[in-house]
Amino acid sequence: MKTNSARNWLAVCAAVLTATAVFRASADQAATTATPEKSYTGTITSISPQEHTLNVRGFVFGKQFNLGAPCTYTLLDNSAGTINDLRPGEKVTVSYQDVDGVLAANHVAQQPMRYSGMVKAIDPTARTLTLHDRAMDKTFQIANDCDVMLRGGKSGSLADIQIGNHVTVTYETPNYQATADQIAQTSMEFTGSLTAIDLGQKTLKAKSLFGEKKFNVGDDCVIMLNGKPDGQLSDLKPDDKLVFSYNTVNGVNVVNRIAPAGEQPAPVATTSGN
Q: How far apart are the C-alpha atoms of 60 and 7, rounded to whole Å?
C-alpha cells in the first residue's frame, strides 16, 4: 500500500515539475515574441562577420546590431544573401528587436541610393561624373566596375554618356565618397531634320522617315555646337539634321540635349551649356 502511495506521489511531483518547465518555457517564448519589432535605415559604417556585428549610421546617430544565426539578408535584386554580401557604404534597412538595450537583428535588406539629373560634366580619365538637378550639382566617383545601362535595357559604356543626357545613378558611399555603381540613361532619342523653330515659345519641330515631333526646350537644355556645349537656339537652322534627347511628361516632349547627327562626343567634357 505504501509502495503504491509512494509511486503516486512521485508521479504527481513529476507532473508538477513538467508543467512548471513547460510554463517557464512558454513564458520565456512569450517574453521574446512580445518584444516589438523595429526598423532602422542608414548607411553601413562597419561590419564584422567574425563578431557578427553591424554598425549603421542614420541621419543623426548610429546603432550597432548583433547578427544572430537566424538573421536573413535581402540584396538589391531581391535575392537572398549572406552577411558576406554586405559592405561599408551601402544603405540598408535593419529589422530588429531591442531586448534590454541589446539590438538583435532578424533581417537586413539592402536599399538603393539613387540620384537623377542632367549630366553637367564627365571625365573618363579621372572617372568623375557631375549631375545637375534643381540648381544643385552632385559629383560621383565612377567605380571601376560601374555598369552603364542604355534605354531598353541595353548595356553601354561611359562613351555613351554625354553632357546634357538625363541619367539615374545608383551609388554607394564608401569612405563618405559618393561612388556610382550604375549609370542608367533615362532620356529617349529622336533623330530628324529641323522643320520649325519658335525662339519666343522655345519650341522646335523635327521630322524623320517615321513622322514629326514637337519639342519644348527645357531651361537646362544643352545645345552642342562644334563639339562644345555652348550653343544657343538661334544657332539652329531649318533642315539641320539633329539628335534630340528628351523625356515625355504628360504627353509633352521636353528636350534636354540637342546635337548634330553623327557628332562624336569629346573624350573629356567638364562644363555645362546653355
A: 66
> Are residues 162 and 269 in contact, defined by beta-carbon separation less than 8 angstroms?
yes
Question: pTM score, two decimals?
Answer: 0.67
Sequence-ordered list of residues with C-beta below 8 angstroms from that of 177, at least 6 positions apart, any chain: 141
Say if residues 131 and 272 touch (Cβ distance below 8 Å). Answer: no
C-alpha pair distances (Å), 217 with each of 11, 129, 197, 254, 271? 90, 24, 10, 6, 19
Residues 99 and 65 in one domain: yes
Using DSSP's 3-state secondary structure scheme, residue 54 falls into strand
pLDDT in tens, 149-158: 998 788 999 9
CA 20 to chain centre: 53
Per the structure, the complete domain to which residue 71 belongs is given by: 37-111
- CATH number assigned to the domain comprising residue 94: 2.40.50.320
Which residue, among 209, 179, 205, has the nearest Cα to 258 in the 3D structure? 205
Residues 191 and 110: their CA atoms lie apart, in Å, by 39
- How far apart CA 159 and CA 122 sit, in angstroms, is 10
What pLDDT, in 10s, does the model give residues 97-111? 999 999 999 999 999
* Pairing between β-strand 241-249 and β-strand 113-123 as defined by DSSP bridges: unpaired
